[in-house]
Amino acid sequence: MVGRTKSAEKTVLDVYLERLQDHLAIETKTIETVLSELPGCARYESLSAQMKQDLTMRRAHADEIRMLLGRHGHPAPAAHETVSSILNTVSNVLHGGEESSFLKSILTDISYRSYQIASLDILIFLANRLGFASDLSTLERLRTEENTSMALLHASLPDTLAEYLSND
């Protein structure tokens, strides 16, 4: 059952599809960021290995979001600059004073992951409200994978920072 949001112009389905598009945009931006950061992190073995695993996961997540959009008759949109621009601005404001690009990269990665998890939480709520059981299952799995990835990043952070400081 498709209900109305507070805005009379948009249905819950409209909001859901927009959020899927936004989530795809952030996945795409994160993939681009990881690809650009990988060469600079090559000397940090554990971080580099984790980034490569995350890149594989992010590509799979982007494919699954494209699949969800297609299932609802909406092909994946062209680059969605708005969300990427907002996240770049937030990242620059939060981390603009950081001297090290390595540390800034880690903070940016944590920021992206936090955004992705919150985005998935919203998508799960909307999919549940719309009764999209198959979407719900996919989105919950993606959120679990994001949370697991975030936990690994946090667990490896002390060793990564120690390795960074010993290379200085």
UniProtKB/TrEMBL annotation:
Coiled coil, from the record: none
Protein name (record): DUF892 family protein
Lineage start: Bacteria, Pseudomonadati, Pseudomonadota, Alphaproteobacteria, Acetobacterales
